[in-house]
């Protein structure tokens, strides 16, 4: 049995609303006041989506971008200011395999993750004078979590009725371990997924024409299942 060496002063829990961007500076300052420094920022807030674009209200897309994208870069901005002063730190962002490919029923979610990928890949190029500041993008595939129970649907007031079976997804603990390994080794991007999802990522990267063909076939079946409530 491992015994933690952490004490009360080593732990600080703060409530944070990513959509309340005016609160992010104060939250950052509270952490700095308690610990004196921030070594690692892990951006792990967000919501997914299960709805067809033609049925979905535009305010759902606005809410997804507000939370997944703007909320994340707002918090990053305040923490990065501190890391630049120290000339060191790690910014780890949980993107998704949906940040490197497209998929049906998740147009808004994919868009927000593509936005994060583009933002952090661009930010990395602005930090060449700070080699000790790492920008790390984590792209998980399906992972066991409560993300499905909390997805956006066709409108903001509607919740999902059937969250489905999660037994085929990667266990949460394994995803966390691989994320920590990626962070410790300063990987710029890590795809954390089991097959066949990982194989689709490689197809999307290296054989996009085949990926389009496969996704169209898989997507048609997925949409049929979605419409029939599976």
UniProtKB/TrEMBL annotation:
Classification via PROSITE patterns: ADH_SHORT (PS00061)
Q: Extract one GO molecular function annotation from the record.
A: oxidoreductase activity
Give the InterPro entries listed for this entry: NAD(P)-bd_dom_sf, Sc_DH/Rdtase_CS, SDR_fam, SDR_family_member_7
Q: Name one Pfam family in it.
A: adh_short
Q: Which Gene3D superfamilies match?
A: NAD(P)-binding Rossmann-like Domain
- Leader sequence range is none
Q: Which spans of this chain does the record mark as coiled coil?
A: none
Q: Supply the alphabetized keyword list.
A: Oxidoreductase
State the superkingdom: Eukaryota
Family of this protein: Belongs to the short-chain dehydrogenases/reductases (SDR) family.
Question: Which protein are we looking at?
Answer: DHRS7 reductase
Its organism's taxonomic lineage begins at: Eukaryota, Metazoa, Chordata, Craniata, Vertebrata
